[in-house]
Amino acid sequence: MLSNPNHAPAPSQMLPLYDDAMSVDEQSELASIMSGSYGFARPASSVTSNSEMMRPASPARSLLSMTDSRLAASFRQEYGRHLNNYSEVYRLPADDEELTRLNKQHLMFQRVMGKYPPGLEEVLTPDNVETKTVVDLGCGSGSWIFDVARDFPESSCLAIDLVPMQSTSMPPNCRSEVDDINLGLQHYFGQFNVVHSRLVCTGVKDYPGLVDQIALVLRSRGLLSLTEHNFYVYGEDKKQIMGDDFNPNGPFLPQWMAVARNAMRRHGADVDAAHRLHEWVKDHPDFEDTIYRDFWLPVSPWKKGDDAETRVFNEVGEACREDLTAFLESGRPLLLSAGVKESFLNELETKARREMEEARTPLYVLVENVVARRKRW
Ligand SMILES: C[S@@+](CC[C@H](N)C(=O)[O-])C[C@H]1O[C@@H](n2cnc3c(N)ncnc32)[C@H](O)[C@@H]1O
Predict the structure, then answer these.
(1) Residue 9 C-alpha to ligand 1 middle, in angstroms?
(2) pLDDT of 274-297, one tens digit each?
(3) Dihedral of the CA atoms 182, 186, 192, 198 (nearest 10)?
(4) Which structural domains are found in the chain, ordered by start?
(5) Ligand 1: residues within 6 Å at CB?
(6) Fewest C-beta atoms under 10 Å: which of 83, 145, 220, 224?
């Protein structure tokens, strides 16, 4: 399929990516992201609330230690990777390899976006009124919420994800719960000063509905921070490269992303969320003081020059390339289970990887962040 870069494909060869039939409309839809994580390490305790029957009335209830069998039941193996066993929507791995990717990605985001969203330190400054509380929805490896727990030791932190967190390094003021945030957040209403969520849209069915739920979870003047990636790739002019139609001349990363967006859609994910976050929050009657920030990450160190600014740019490009290269691997279960042909995927993956290694094609990915405060209530 991608084997002869010198020939444009005949119409019948366009997008023969899927084993089963898929309409052109479905094929040409948008959006996708990087994702997912966990270690099988040991210790710590977790709350499980992943089924309606098991959902606790409050985050403090049903604290239990993970037994080996419960832990094993949380994961399933697909195409050589471990995935969560609860959600049919979120299909990125939840294994050590993914955990490592997320930890490195976290450091890259810290560098590009700063450690915390604007306003977080103010909101978490201790007072005599209440213990300040923070929840991270879809916490992954826990890198963000662990930082908060360590930097704000008087706060109380909650890490929520589809799979149990068994980290040995969970700070004492942090606890974890297994939960599917698609099922609603009623059991957390009115309980948090900060709600953070980053790169979860691949596992979320109704993102505006999630924003509504978060508004109810936040305390008066609480802080919301949402960060998403739209799974598009952009050219040097920062114009979107669709990638929906097969182009043997590349660029190939946009084509891989187009296939990933379609696969995520097929699994029911709200992959267009990144572009609409700002509008959903700004126009929401319960939020105020909305801040929108966009971050353009070069997908490889493609910029020429040796001045300080170019060096920093290319360092971010190197980190992003490492992340995306690992993400190509992480996406295999998602894409293969959506029916993408393995031979096609292997070739597209190889070409996208080579393109980033060569660092000659000027490409960006975009990460969007929205921060807002809950109106007084
Ligand atoms: C790409 S990772 C990002 C992890 C972390 N937020 C970060 O930025 O490093 C997405 C995480 O969200 C979790 N997730 C996705 N959908 C979810 C859902 N419906 N409920 C709870 N967690 C979810 C996944 O299990 C995964 O750990």
Answers:
(1) 37
(2) 999 999 999 999 999 999 999 999
(3) 0
(4) 14-374 (3.40.50.150)
(5) 34-37, 84, 87, 90, 94, 102, 106, 138-140, 143, 160-163, 179-182, 198-200, 203-204
(6) 220
